[in-house]
Amino acid sequence: MKRRLISTGTRYERDVGYSRAVIAGGHVFTAGCAPAMPEGVDPPTDTYGQTKRCLEIIAAALTEAGSSVSDVVRTRVYLTPAADFEGFGRAHGEVFSEIRPANTTVIIHSLVDPRWHLEIEAEAVISPETG
User: How many domains does the chain have?
Assistant: First the structure.
Protein backbone atom coordinates (compact mmCIF):
# COMPACT_ATOMS: atom_id res chain seq x y z
CA MET A 1 0.00 0.00 0.00
CA LYS A 2 1.30 3.44 -0.93
CA ARG A 3 1.82 5.85 1.97
CA ARG A 4 2.41 9.58 1.95
CA LEU A 5 3.52 11.57 4.97
CA ILE A 6 2.42 15.11 5.84
CA SER A 7 4.78 17.11 8.03
CA THR A 8 4.52 20.53 9.61
CA GLY A 9 8.25 20.53 10.35
CA THR A 10 8.04 20.76 14.13
CA ARG A 11 11.00 19.53 16.13
CA TYR A 12 8.72 17.01 17.87
CA GLU A 13 8.02 15.30 14.54
CA ARG A 14 11.74 15.00 13.88
CA ASP A 15 12.82 14.15 17.43
CA VAL A 16 10.04 11.71 18.28
CA GLY A 17 9.65 10.26 14.77
CA TYR A 18 6.08 10.86 13.70
CA SER A 19 4.13 12.71 11.00
CA ARG A 20 1.35 15.28 11.37
CA ALA A 21 -0.71 13.04 9.10
CA VAL A 22 -0.33 9.81 7.15
CA ILE A 23 -2.26 9.03 3.97
CA ALA A 24 -2.77 5.32 3.31
CA GLY A 25 -5.41 3.41 1.38
CA GLY A 26 -7.63 6.42 0.69
CA HIS A 27 -7.64 7.45 4.36
CA VAL A 28 -5.94 10.26 6.24
CA PHE A 29 -4.90 9.74 9.86
CA THR A 30 -3.78 12.77 11.85
CA ALA A 31 -1.52 12.62 14.86
CA GLY A 32 -2.83 14.10 18.06
CA CYS A 33 -3.06 17.85 17.49
CA ALA A 34 -2.45 20.03 20.52
CA PRO A 35 -3.04 23.79 20.54
CA ALA A 36 0.59 24.57 19.67
CA MET A 37 1.04 28.07 18.34
CA PRO A 38 3.50 29.33 15.74
CA GLU A 39 6.80 30.74 16.94
CA GLY A 40 6.28 29.69 20.55
CA VAL A 41 3.37 32.02 21.21
CA ASP A 42 1.29 30.98 24.21
CA PRO A 43 -1.82 28.95 23.34
CA PRO A 44 -5.28 30.34 24.09
CA THR A 45 -6.05 29.97 27.79
CA ASP A 46 -9.61 28.69 27.29
CA THR A 47 -10.66 25.25 26.06
CA TYR A 48 -12.86 26.71 23.31
CA GLY A 49 -9.92 28.65 21.83
CA GLN A 50 -7.59 25.68 22.19
CA THR A 51 -10.10 23.41 20.44
CA LYS A 52 -10.40 25.91 17.57
CA ARG A 53 -6.59 25.93 17.25
CA CYS A 54 -6.39 22.11 17.22
CA LEU A 55 -9.07 21.96 14.53
CA GLU A 56 -7.20 24.58 12.43
CA ILE A 57 -4.09 22.38 12.52
CA ILE A 58 -6.16 19.33 11.56
CA ALA A 59 -7.90 21.20 8.72
CA ALA A 60 -4.55 22.34 7.29
CA ALA A 61 -3.14 18.80 7.37
CA LEU A 62 -6.28 17.39 5.75
CA THR A 63 -6.16 20.02 3.00
CA GLU A 64 -2.53 19.18 2.27
CA ALA A 65 -3.53 15.51 2.15
CA GLY A 66 -6.27 16.17 -0.42
CA SER A 67 -9.12 15.83 2.06
CA SER A 68 -11.10 18.23 4.26
CA VAL A 69 -12.98 18.43 7.54
CA SER A 70 -16.14 17.40 5.66
CA ASP A 71 -14.45 14.05 5.01
CA VAL A 72 -13.72 13.33 8.70
CA VAL A 73 -15.21 10.05 9.87
CA ARG A 74 -13.77 9.90 13.41
CA THR A 75 -12.35 12.21 16.05
CA ARG A 76 -10.62 11.21 19.26
CA VAL A 77 -10.30 13.83 21.94
CA TYR A 78 -8.14 13.71 25.04
CA LEU A 79 -9.24 16.25 27.66
CA THR A 80 -7.34 17.12 30.84
CA PRO A 81 -9.16 17.86 34.09
CA ALA A 82 -8.51 21.58 33.39
CA ALA A 83 -10.59 21.36 30.22
CA ASP A 84 -14.07 22.78 29.92
CA PHE A 85 -16.15 20.09 28.16
CA GLU A 86 -18.78 22.62 27.06
CA GLY A 87 -16.12 24.85 25.48
CA PHE A 88 -14.66 21.88 23.66
CA GLY A 89 -18.11 20.70 22.59
CA ARG A 90 -19.12 24.11 21.26
CA ALA A 91 -15.99 24.43 19.07
CA HIS A 92 -16.18 20.79 17.90
CA GLY A 93 -19.87 21.25 17.08
CA GLU A 94 -19.21 24.41 15.06
CA VAL A 95 -17.04 22.37 12.72
CA PHE A 96 -18.72 18.96 12.83
CA SER A 97 -22.44 19.48 13.64
CA GLU A 98 -23.52 18.55 10.11
CA ILE A 99 -20.70 16.06 9.42
CA ARG A 100 -21.18 14.17 12.70
CA PRO A 101 -18.11 11.91 12.72
CA ALA A 102 -17.83 9.09 15.23
CA ASN A 103 -16.24 10.55 18.37
CA THR A 104 -14.52 9.29 21.48
CA THR A 105 -13.69 11.75 24.26
CA VAL A 106 -11.43 10.62 27.09
CA ILE A 107 -10.40 12.43 30.26
CA ILE A 108 -6.66 12.05 30.89
CA HIS A 109 -4.34 13.19 33.66
CA SER A 110 -2.17 15.61 31.66
CA LEU A 111 -0.45 16.41 28.36
CA VAL A 112 3.17 17.20 27.45
CA ASP A 113 2.68 20.94 27.92
CA PRO A 114 0.75 21.80 31.11
CA ARG A 115 -0.89 24.79 29.35
CA TRP A 116 -2.71 22.43 26.96
CA HIS A 117 -6.24 21.36 27.85
CA LEU A 118 -6.70 18.86 25.03
CA GLU A 119 -5.37 17.01 22.03
CA ILE A 120 -7.48 15.91 19.05
CA GLU A 121 -6.92 13.18 16.45
CA ALA A 122 -8.95 12.84 13.26
CA GLU A 123 -9.45 10.20 10.62
CA ALA A 124 -10.79 11.17 7.22
CA VAL A 125 -11.33 9.70 3.79
CA ILE A 126 -10.14 11.21 0.55
CA SER A 127 -13.35 11.74 -1.38
CA PRO A 128 -13.46 12.22 -5.16
CA GLU A 129 -14.74 15.76 -4.59
CA THR A 130 -11.74 16.81 -2.44
CA GLY A 131 -8.97 14.46 -3.56
Answer: 1
Q: Looking at the domain assignment, is residue 131 inside a domain?
A: no
- Cβ atoms of 71 and 124 within 8 Å: the answer is yes
- Model confidence at 41: pLDDT above 80: yes
Instruction: Quote the pTM value.
Output: 0.92
Contact 26, 2 (CB under 8 A): no
Q: Is residue 13 part of a domain?
A: yes
Q: What is the mean pLDDT of residues 45-50?
A: 97
Provide the β-strand partners of residue 104. Answer: 76
Q: What span, in angstroms and rounded, lies between the C-alpha atoms of 14 and 85? A: 32
CA distance between the termini of the chain: 17
Whole-number CA gyration radius for the chain: 14
Residues 6+ apart with CB under 8 A from 127: 67, 70, 71
